[in-house]
Write a structure and sequence with these properties.
binds FE2/S2 (inorganic) cluster; 15% helix; alpha+beta; 3 helices; five-stranded antiparallel β-sheet
């Protein structure tokens, strides 16, 4: 199978970046606790921690809209073509604050035809659009590689591959967890966060 790679300007810009999960500390742990519904205590703890964080460092919140990093425009379904490399993105609060104050908040937005998506991926997609954390679950690099023929994502640090058609599942490499996925809906043409990440963001290991 071919492994032709492409690094479009809108995706894969800059150098590979790695931030250790350890540097993220309490924030990552609390995000994980609150992810996917979490337990009541975790929710309370996260709410408390969230009070301490600047709004631009908060992870994507329900009601935020997704914006394209390249030009700052709100992402619309028509901005993405099915099966083409993702766009790097951020969440923006309803009052317009971009949540780009924390590296871990970097997102990948991608689109597929419905028939190409697994049922699990579809539950969080809207009109074929999916949004994932861009942070590799192995050791926290930004995932910037795109394998055009396989239509999969590749981390530049140790080569983990993730399947955006299947809820960000790990296909290859040292990553032990899938890429976290946001739940989405559409309002007034914008892609809106309908549910928080379905799993913990950030890497598990140090480099
Ligand atoms: S940090 Fe991504 S594969 Fe190691």
């Amino acid at each position: 199978m071919s492994s032709e790679k492409t690094n479009d300007k809108e995706f894969g810009e800059g150098q590979p970046i790695c931030r250790l999960a350890a540097n993220f500390g309490r924030r990552a742990v609390l995000q994980g606790m609150a992810a996917a519904g979490g337990i009541a205590m975790a929710g309370q703890a996260f709410a408390q921690a969230a009070d301490d964080l600047p709004a631009d460092e908060l992870p994507p919140q329900v009601g935020d809209f997704i914006t394209i990093r390249e030009d700052g425009r709100p992402l619309e379904v028509k901005d993405l073509r099915p099966g083409v490399s993702p766009k790097t993105a951020y969440a923006v609060s309803p009052d317009g604050l971009i949540r780009n104050g924390e590296f871990m908040n970097t997102l990948l937005a991608i689109k597929f035809n419905d028939a190409d998506l697994t049922d699990e991926a579809k539950t969080r997609a809207v009109e074929g659009v999916l949004v994932y954390s861009a942070i590799c679950t192995h050791a926290g690099c930004e995932v910037t590689g795109w394998l055009r023929e396989e239509k999969t994502l590749e981390c530049p640090c140790h080569g983990s591959h993730f399947d955006p058609k299947n809820n960000g599942a790990v296909l290859f490499g040292p990553a032990g967890r899938k890429l976290p996925q946001l739940g989405l809906e559409i309002k007034d043409g914008k892609i809106i966060v309908a549910s928080v990440f379905d799993s913990r963001i950030g890497g598990d290991e140090t480099m």
